[in-house]
Write a structure and sequence with these properties.
single chain; Serine Threonine Protein Phosphatase 5, Tetratricopeptide repeat; 8 helices; flat
Length: 188
């Protein structure tokens, strides 16, 4: 999400690059900030395909970490499926934007039909780890929807075993840590 220099981090302001260069009358009805639930609800009520011209703008709100506007849009995108497939694919392929990936993998994509999900780049998340748990959410989605890896469905069991061992090793490190219990500064 590109922001202008004077923009608040709570509102996507610039149009999605390369899309919808013609301004739609719906553009004026987009949420003005992360609390503009009424505008979001009004657009959701119009439904798809009516909101197609501003779909990329609405999709940008999925990266606002649970803002009120995002909470209105999650059910809409959860039920949309194929019409939002390209937006989801693009977001999953980006090297940044973990908040939108987390929202997609945890809240949106589990509601999409398997036929749409198998076209998305999910497997790559199985072999990485991050603070948002994208790897675990992707594995959960692939297991529940029976989406095979390049090794077939047995690849899901191998990914789970790898993840389990990896996280158990990290938990063992945490278990051995003994943080100080007071606020006294450590000696220099």
């Amino acid at each position: 999400m590109k922001m202008s220099k004077n923009a608040s981090a709570s509102a996507p302001l610039e149009p999605h690059p390369g899309r919808n260069s013609v301004t739609s009358p719906l553009t004026r009805r987009l949420p003005k900030d992360s609390g503009d639930v009424a505008a979001a609800a009004e657009l959701v009520a119009l439904g798809y395909p009516t909101v197609a011209p501003v779909l990329p703008h609405l999709f940008q709100w999925l990266e606002t970490s649970g803002s009120p506007v995002e909470m209105v849009l999650r059910p809409f995108f959860s039920s949309l499926g194929a019409p939002a497939r390209d937006l989801a694919c693009e977001a999953l392929l980006r090297h940044n934007k973990p908040a939108v990936k987390h929202c997609l993998l945890r809240y949106i994509l589990p509601h999409w039909p398997r036929e749409v999900l198998v076209t998305l780049p999910l497997e790559g998340y199985l072999y990485s780890g991050d603070a948002h748990g994208l790897d675990v959410w992707a594995l959960k989605l692939m297991v529940e929807k029976r989406i095979p890896t390049h090794d077939g469905l047995r690849g899901l069991a191998a990914a789970k075993a790898f993840k389990t061992a990896h996280y158990e090793a990290l938990l063992a490190v945490l278990d051995k840590l003994e943080p100080p219990e007071d606020d006294a500064r450590a000696p220099a």
